[in-house]
Amino acid sequence: MKMVTAIIQPKRLDSVRQALSEINVTGVTATEVKGFGRQKGHTELYRGAEFVVEFLPKVKIEIAITKEQLDEVIESITSACKINGGKIGDGKIFVSSLEQVVRIRTGESGPDAV
Q1: Would you say the C-alpha torsion 8, 3, 27, 71 has a positive or negative sign?
Q2: Cβ count within 10 A of residue 6
Q3: pTM of the model as a whole
């Protein structure tokens, strides 16, 4: 089993959710987060004063899947998040192994719990 964690732009959340639904991914957790990568934030003007926004709003999505779904999930997220052929700030995808998954309601474990 795998845990896919993706950091994406907030405006791409609906397109990612739709793309994952099309490949029958049933469970996704989304969290509003702030951070920066290579883009290093930006400068804004507010009431005549200039200030630097270092941490940009992002969305972190987490998906527990089986090993067989991994390539399809990565492709779906990637295609839903590319803007104009891919630009800095489109996001990142991290994949890690899951030791165990347990569904609390039924006590099922392993791939059956995903």
Answers
A1: positive
A2: 25
A3: 0.84
What is the Cα–Cα distance from 9 to 39, expressed in whole angstroms?
Answer: 13
Residue 2 confidence (pLDDT): 95
Q: Which CATH number fits domain 2-113: 3.10.580.10, 3.30.70.120, 1.10.1040.10, 1.10.3300.10?
A: 3.30.70.120
pLDDT in tens, 3-54: 999 999 999 999 999 999 999 998 999 999 998 877 666 676 777 777 677 7
- Tokens coding 96: 């890690």
Amino acid at 18: Q
Q: How many CB atoms lie within 10 A of CB 73?
A: 21
- All structural domains of the chain with their residue ranges: 2-113
